[in-house]
Design a protein that fits this description.
about 190 residues; 6-stranded mixed β-sheet; about 20% strand
Length: about 190
Amino acid sequence: MTSFTLLSTSLREDSQSRALLAFCADRLRHAGRRTHWFDLRDFPPVLCNGDEEAPIATYPQPFPALHSAMQQSAGTLVGMPIYLYSTAGPTKNVLDIIGDALTGKPVGFLTAAGTPRSHLAVRDAMNCLQFEYEAFVYSKTVQVCRDDYDRASVEERTAAFCRGFTQFADALASLACVEAQAMNAY
C-alpha cells in the first residue's frame, strides 16, 4: 500500500488550508492509501540557517521524522496559506529545511488566500522545489479564497485534485520502475 505525506503549514487554529488537506487525507485513506500527517504547529520554532551542508539530524524532532516520511512516501501534499501575496514565512522555512527529501518525488499544493490573484504566490514554493531540489511538482492546485462558501464545489475540486495527484504519483512510480529495470538490464 502506498503512503503519502501531508504537511499543514498554517499556524492558524481554523485554517482553511488545513481543512483542505484533512479532506484530501480522508480521500486518500478511502482510496486505500496510507497517510502520514505533519502539522507545523507541532514543530519547534527553528529557522533555516541557509547552510546547505547541515544534516537534517542537526534539527530537532519532528523535522527529521518529516524528512524521513517524505523520502519514503509516494508523494507529499502541502497545505499552505498565502499571506499578503506571498508564501508564508513558516512554509518557506520548513521547505528550505526539508526540501532535499523531495528530490525526485511528486509534491502538490492546496492553498488558502484572501483573493484569487494571491494564489500566484504558490509559484514561489513550486519553483524552489522544482529547480533547487528537482521535485516533480504537480501543476494543478486547489485554491480556496475567503469568498468560497460553496462547500460542495470546494470538496469536488479537492477530490478531483486528490485523484489527479495520486495518478501523477503512480505514473512517476511506474516510470521509476521501468527505468530501474532498464538499468539492471545492462
